[in-house]
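Q: Got a minute? One more chain.
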Amino acid sequence: MLKLKVNGRYLAFDNGEPFFYLGDTAWELFHKLSREEAEYFLSERSRQGFTAVQAVALAEFDGLTVPNYYGRLPFLFTDNMPDPEKPDCSGDYSYWNHVDYIIKTAEKYNIFMTILPTWGDKINLCWGKGPVVFSCENAYTYGKWLANRYKNNPNIIWMLGGDRPLEENHRKIIDSMAKGIREEDTYHLITFHPVGGRCSTDFVGDAEYIDFHTSQTGHGVDLCYKSDSVMEKMACTFEKPFLDSEPRYEDHPACFNDKIGYYWNCDDVRQNAYWNVLSGACGHTYGNHCIWSMNREANSYFPYIWKDALTHTGAEQIKHVKNLRLKYDYFSFKPNKSLIAENFEGMAHMTAGSGNGYGFIYSPLGIPFKVNLSAFENINSLKAIWYNPRTGEEELFAVLPPHGQTVVAPPSQGKGCDWVLILECVR
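A: Always. Here it is, folded:
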């Protein structure tokens, strides 16, 4: 596996090959699964085209006090408290040897492990169970130890944060942890996972150690229908790559309320993926509510066990956004709303982008729309192709002149009938 680096607004391997970050949130992976279960999970995600898995070393669900699958905790205790300066690595099935195994297994499947050193409640207990165990001093020591342990694993991305806001004292702890990581590991990229409804640019925008930014547009309705505007905000703030590290999860109760009776589904998942990627994101993160939690007992809030959710429709379809971007000149792509002559509002709003010799327009509801054909210069004609985000199939339906405007009608209309119009330049 090659080294990742930043290439303008995007990520690449050190041989120049583009890297599209297609992530999955498997936050409880290290904490809850056995080695056999972890391998099964990673093999399926590899088959589905994922390139990264986000997991937490010190998990949200009592990760410091409830043992992992093998009955082991991450730290020894000092004065009845977990001690981040005393990792327990004793025995073949220690907590950290289990983490080692999963990271190596992910490498076998060509998957990067995006590792959160800790969930945010161990730094800022504004909600959750904690306990808070980190100070600036032991965060530095822990970050240094963690980075030294995994600096030679090629498939690592570091993700600080963990779904909690940062006040000044919390930011100092994160900075100390990052300093420890960077002193031992100059090889791997570092990013930050913010609290819901916010971006990493809000908390660590000025941090030199951040290689790319992320947002959490989340599971409510405040941002889910305008996640592309969040991407635009990050793009305008700093000249670094960016993506959504936690959008709407498949099978998540809408607005965290299972009494509503609506769970975000594959159609909702696709909307955020295409809005975000066509707004210039360097990738996208899929999530399933029953996967991040590695749920083992179905109920109204977690409606499936994790193994059943693993092959749900959204997870099988999400690879098509990656395949679309990688098919064309990757690094030349930029958002380009000038392709859209007239846009819509709300869930129906479209987004667009273009690169050398091509353009994309995403229609989330399949409503007929007007295209600005004059957005391209020095070409003879445009091949117009419908791309199906559900199947990845393409259909050439017209050859258009490179001037003026025209109305096009996607093959189907309504919720779940989203389409991408591909315009290929003919010179």
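A: The domain at 4-327 is CATH 3.20.20.80 (TIM Barrel).
Q: Perfect, thanks.
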